[in-house]
Amino acid sequence: MTRQRLRRLLQAGLTLGAFSLCFGVVTGARAQTELLNVSYDPTRELYREVNAAFIADWNAKNPQKTIRTIRQSHGGSGAQARTVIDGLNADVLTLALAGDIDAVAERSKKLPLDWQKRLPQNSSPYTSTIVFLVRKGNPKAIKDWGDLVKPGVQIITPNPKTSGGARWNYLAAWAYAEKAFNKDEAKVRDYIAKLLANVPVLDTGARGATTTFTQRGIGDVFLSWENEAFLALKEFGEEKFDIVVPSLSILAEPPVTIVDGNVDAKVTRAEAQAYLDFLYTPKGQAIIAKHYYRPRNPEAADAKDIARFPKVELITIDAAFGGWAKAQPVHFGDGGTFDQLYKPTR
Amino acid sequence: MSDASLPLQAEDLEPARAARHVSGESRLVQWSLVAISLAFLCLFLFLPLITVFVEASARGWQAYREAILEPDALAAIRLTLLVAAIAVPINIVIGIAAAWAIAKFEFRGKSLLTSFIDLPFSVSPVISGLVFVLLFGAQGYFGLWLKAHDIQIVFALPGIVLATIFVTFPFVARELIPHMQSLGSAEEETALTLGASPWRTFLTVTLPNVKWSLFYGVLLCNARAMGEFGAVAVVSGKIRGLTNTMPLHVEILYNEYMGAAAFAVASLLAGLALVTLALKTLLEWHFADAIAASRRH
User: Fold this and answer.
1) A-chain residues within 8 Å CB-CB of B161?
2) Which pick of A168, A202, A292, B114 has the fewest CB atoms within 10 Å?
3) What domains can you pick out in chain A, each with its CATH number?
4) Which residues in B lie closer than 8 A to residue A21 (C-beta atoms)?
């Protein structure tokens, strides 16, 4: 290669590099009406449909101030909270439980500590609960929480440290044990320890755990969000799995909020607020029921969607555990009951 | 003529056969070694690679096209190429500078520098990602300053580029250092004595001598830059259509029960790697003489 050609090559390379650098900075900084919804694992399909419906709705009403797109980011609820604390510019947070949004409020100071009072019904436009997904025909005869601690039963549940769903699983099991053993703390602890000993692998998020159970075929029973269990039936066929509804479960309230610090910086408060309000509208509630979440306003949803939800006795976190602010440190903080009772070595 | 050459050929063959026996191993050992290597390649390389393409085409060409042309997938492809287009040139410059310094000069801490260049290879990619979050995240050391100046590094393009540069940094330097060291600095010294400027010496003597090593380094660097998962996953924030690279997109699609689409994007990623490989082979074949010449130095 001659010197000239080399030099030309070098020049071309440098120009390309400089150009792409500029291009990157420009695209990174360009102002667009775009919202970012940072959510937990199982809501991918739900928000894809909500986003399309909301954008159509908003753009029809606000033709001079349209929303181009709503971006989605999904992961384990706790992990997602962590990235927002570390600076991910979420306009709205739609996480699995209030405790994770509390953590964002405390550590990033981008939203007030009483954020949960700002929207109706604990800021949760939908609820869900925890059910069991078992292999077709229920070969291990798992009917209720008590059956989970039988020897030889493999349980799939994600890691409560990173997954919101797993924390609901854990507390539902705890609530069952308190009822079954008449609040005898030693027996409750023994039950939970036995249950955890039957867990072969802890995934970081609900979706990873679903994949472990459904696609990798590990485990006899999967402690799952109700919506995630229904979705698995839909994706893989009802001939592969059964849903088992335990005698008692927990009312899971996945809350939503705007992140004040971010929407004010991005000037998207009006859009973000309208987006969350949309979830409470009849249209929003109908989409919610369609994706197997329990709507707050069942009348708004298709009766056929509502009929799919089994009746189950649901305890609330406020009544049984005194709210997330109490339950989080006691059970999932450093050295909490989960740390005390989970022994990964087998 | 032909009568005379025949016995000569036969004689030539004999020493060759003898030489093969001199290596000591029996045929059995030779063949079993070949068989083991082939079995290993099949199990760990060809089989997974074929699976990717088979799964990708499982739902037909139409589904494949749709998976690739879906806006989030296109955005992921664009982002991956953009990140490589920024990270690779930067690593070329830094890699050449580092290799040059190590191969041609003597200075204190040279061996330390050599070890440091390997650091990204020995550190887990998760840590490579986390350090940038710790430095540039909202709670990080520069978090407040960056926020005050409205600069977003992690969970945006700059963070992904930084993590990619960090992880792929050693490839160019690692290829160049041994080659430059084996060349010594005699030719450069000659050029300098004859009055060439240092810059000209570099462009006309050093660079042409090592261009093949540089080229390999760039190819490897590029392949890794496009394929990096761990470090990028930590700093990406996983915003679809914005900070999702191809490897991350593959995982997301798989988790969304869209196996065929996941493998379609995966096959494209694997395809890019294969193109890189083909390019390398083609150039090696085309410039076989030039490469041999540069290696002889």
Assistant:
1) 24
2) B114
3) 32-127+253-307 (3.40.190.10), 130-250+316-341 (3.40.190.10)
4) 86
